[in-house]
Amino acid sequence: MTLRIRQPRAGLLLVPAYVLLALTVVAPVLVVIVLSLFDYDPLLGTADFVALDNFGRVLSSDEFGRALVNTAIYLILTVPVTLTASMLVALGIHSLSWGGTLWRNVYFLPVASTLAAMAVAWRWLFYGGSGVVDATVGRVLGVEDWLHSTTLALPAVAVVGTWENVGFAVVMFLAGLSAVPPQLLEAARLDGAGAWSRFWHVTWPALGPAVVFTLIITTRNALKVFDQVRVMTEGGPVNSSTTLSYLLWERGIRFLDVGGGSVITLVLLALILGVTAIQLGTVGLRWERAGTR
Amino acid sequence: MTARVVTRQVLTHLALAVGGVVMLAPFAIMLWTAFVPERLVFGGAGLGDLTLENFRIAVRESDWLRAYRSSVIVAAVTFASQLLTCLPAGYVLARHRFRGRSLALGVMFGCLIVPGMVIAIPSYVMISRVGLLDTIAALVWPGLTSAFGIFLFRQFILTLPQSIFDAARMDRVGEFGMVWRVVLPNVKPAIAAFGIFSVVSSWNDLFWASVVLQSSANATVPFAITQFADQEAGVRYGAQMAAATLAVAPLIVAFLLAQRQFVRGINLNVAD
User: What is the ipTM of this complex?
Assistant: First the structure.
């Protein structure tokens, strides 16, 4: 490819970044498509073309179906709670006349900490019987030993995911809130609008872009969940907390099923791009229209 | 302030404190258990029982200095390489019109929306073919450049006034000098934010380390703590919490020292 640039040397400045992007992103994305069509053995270095066999094998397996359902459940358990809780926390912090920064930092601390290590701590909190969760929440709800339960292991992992992501969303919403024009809120108040009415008609529409953006990022984070699954449950018991992203690693790397792992990679890629596109097309567009009403 | 306003402020503080307890409890319990003797981790320990024994076990069973060193090397090489490649590219994309520019921008956006997990298996195959599994080189490989970095620097450079570039051109500053002597000093806030984002991302990464590492020889901090927790599963919770404390400490301390910069940097998180 020849680039015509006013100063001949300027084009050279693009070369390192783009060569590396080609090698580390573009080439792997193309290679993963090829690998999904082969039975590749990384130990022997042999590859047999098997057409769509990997797709048939993986997509029809119980393990894959389970992971797909778990990923959907994880998404439903984490994203709405994260967004609602963060919105309440952000509105609270925003309304304070002093001490707001302290609270922001408290809620942000989990975002800044190494999740793999905190998942080890959470595993201890969820320890069956005498762990803190069983001794408090467990007593109230009448449940125990979440990590060894096929129904509660996934919710336990979702609790950690929510705990980790709230602070990120709080900071996004605080930035959005500080951009709401105060004279509009004041005008609404003088017109006799109550607190809820002011939120719904002034604050909420102005927060639109921040909400859409945070929705997209938290959804992506949920689809990529790995650390706490790896540390706390290893996908168990009996695959009850295996998500697609964890299955990708377990199949493709731990069990060296390169073809199968590549199929899961393509499904995950399609899912992430598809969900982002749908969110932009529905919520994103509605907000754009709402902004002009 | 009226009494009603004060009451509302106090109630808001209280409500935030309730949530804050949930946010901080894992840290508090981790720290407490780390300093309590193993036989008392299930309760009954008082302040007089506190001990460093768990930390002795954690340090004896796993080489934390080596893990810190690996993580520091990976984070430093990653950030240096991203700065060296992304800043020039961001500059050219912001300030030059050339044939292929929209293609270059398209490639950048395309790479931006592809999640990092997608490259794991093909990159694993490539790295194993060249015999570099389980090395520092393998750990830094996918982060040598960053589509997000190019994007961020380009956006920032677009906002700079044209006059500083014109003035430099009058002084016959070449393109190379333009990047490092004109752009660099003007984009320091962007570099600081991106630097924190980059270092925190590579420091915390468990997924890629789990793809390319096979032994503890080059274990990074998240990989080392995961290995340790696997070995100790079901036993010695005190030692596990001591190890977890050692693993989270560096970033927590850094965060407490530079809270505002951290919040800005980490919340750049638009791509992986």
Answer: 0.91
